[in-house]
Amino acid sequence: MKLKRHSNIDWKDPSRYLQKIFLEASSRGNQYAEEIIARAGLPVTIVDDKDFDNIVAGNYPANLSTGKKSLLLCSNKGEFLKGCPATREYRCCDYQVINVGMGCPMNCVYCILQAYLNNPYISFFVNIDDLFNELQKKIDAEASAFSRIGTGEFSDSMALDRITELSRKLVPFFGQWGNVILELKTKCAAVDNLKDLKHNDKTIVSWSLNSPEIMAHEEFRAATLEQRLEAAAKCASWGYPLSFHFDPIIAHDNWQEGYEYTIDALFSAVPKSAIRWISLGGFRYLPKLKDIATGRFPHSTIFYHEFIEGLDKKQRYFRPLRTSIYKTIYQKLSAVVDPKTCIYFCMESDEIWQEVMGFVPAQKGGLGAMLDASVQR
Ligand code: SF4
User: Could you tell me if residue 75 is inside a domain?
Assistant: First the structure.
């Protein structure tokens, strides 16, 4: 399958797209911020805490493409840990999110953050001591519970890692505990910082995958399929468990061929025994996202399809199309996957689980328990 990329630039490491750093005035003297600034080698502007709106000129979302070149280093004044913003109506995986910052330098047409956030710039929190204190308290308080925690909900886990080196702090921290799993979820291929870390199998490195057509035309500045899988193979060779997310699955011409191509490439590139889970999530979006994304990416046709409003108020494909795509992908995956790998739906109803997979999560103790079992092998 031959596909054209929109540019010949190598996007293995999207942090190279950054052009400017802004440091909030009250974080001056923060040692971690100084380390990041030194590694980035970019011009730095000190910005008063009340002047963040002036970091990028223009109005949101028209200024978002420009904003993605600017990184604000600041303190998180709230809590770092949150429950995944799931909805009650669909089966959810009991995931927790570490909020390390907002936004990312990549530019996916379907990115939900375009509608969730209202800042064009990327932010990253440098009060790292507060983060680790909060994590430690949580682990101490829930010593007997098993948790899965990720950093890739409001940003991409590895997109800024070359300059933040956050993975070099998080991975050994999580490696010390028996009952907490960290998932680093990304679309980039900048994984060198993960080499030689004491992960103790407690960090799962994870990639979002899609059909080559969608990756080429709807995921700008993201690594290619080959680059993502090469990075995943490297992580597997360093002993890391892996996971993959087919999300959002998007209906397009020759979608069957495209998703099958990606699955074949995945299982040729990485040992299947390294894969702990694979999620499937159909394209869904808040109505507000359509206006923003079609305005920013007029070439894209992914919103021009028939959709129905789900119980969570998001637009989704009609059920027959969803189940048809899911069945194709699930059957292909089931034929090649390791029996211990958990294949699951992100935010789908019991009816869809039953129709596609032939069971509902409750029969196996719930989705959270299924995922916990796949890492506690
Ligand atoms: S990589 Fe993730 S966070 Fe970044 S633009 Fe794409 S969907 Fe959004």
Answer: yes
